[in-house]
Amino acid sequence: MLNEVQDAAPREPDRWHGGLDVGLLVLRLLLGVIMGAHGLQHLFGLFGGPGIDGFAKVLGGFGYTTQTTLLSWITGVTEVGGSLLLIVGLFTPVASAALLGVAINIVYVKFRGGFFEGTGKGFEFELLLAGVALAILCMGAGRISLDRNTPWRKRPMPIGLLALLLSVAASVVVLVLCR
């Protein structure tokens, strides 16, 4: 009987949650700017980055043995494209899952270098980026986004779980095929 009353009760209208919505915007902007800047380094050599050929060599140093140039392009485009979508809050589950997939790969290849970045081989920074991407994936874009009226913004978990599975699967495929 109680379940029937709860099910019959009208749903709470989609309302402003100031701290949550602003916090999600801040997370989206930070992750988008950081990962986007890395993508621009990888694609075009901006901000002192290596460019495609240099990044392919970096990937080779991390143990990727095949298709490093193609993987460089895929990584750079994923970082820039996912970041742009994340910054404006459009297709947020796809964008955050894409950036999470990149971060998962980086954490995996740097794992043996230890946790702390101080050695230049640690993975703590990339783990933080992965955690932020996962948090956005689970919580959605918030109301300050172009996804404002989409089903995946109003109920982020079901789509987020699907996107998480796809992200992990894509990461495994890259690791299996390119290492």
The string of secondary-structure elements, in order, is HHHHHHHH
**Count of helices?**
8
How much helicity do the residues have? over 70%
The averaged pLDDT comes out at: 90
Structural category is mainly alpha
Instruction: Tell me the Rg in angstroms.
Output: 18 Å
Number of strands: 0
Strand content: under 5%
What are the segments in which pLDDT stays under 50 over at least 5 consecutive residues? none
End-to-end separation in angstroms reads 57 Å
Oligomerization state:
single chain
Based on Cα principal axes, name the global outline.
elongated
Largest sheet descriptor: none
Key traits:
179 residues, mainly alpha
Structure notes:
It is a single chain. The protein has 179 residues and is mainly α. The chain has helices at 2-8, 18-44, 51-61, 68-88, 92-110, 124-139, 151-154, 156-178. The N and C termini lie far apart (57 Å). The mean pLDDT is 90.
In brief:
Helix content is 72%, strand content 0%. It is mainly α.
Write the layout of secondary structure elements.
Layout: H1 2-8, H2 18-44, H3 51-61, H4 68-88, H5 92-110, H6 124-139, H7 151-154, H8 156-178
Helix pairs in contact: 2-3, 2-4, 2-6, 3-4, 4-5, 5-6, 5-8, 6-8
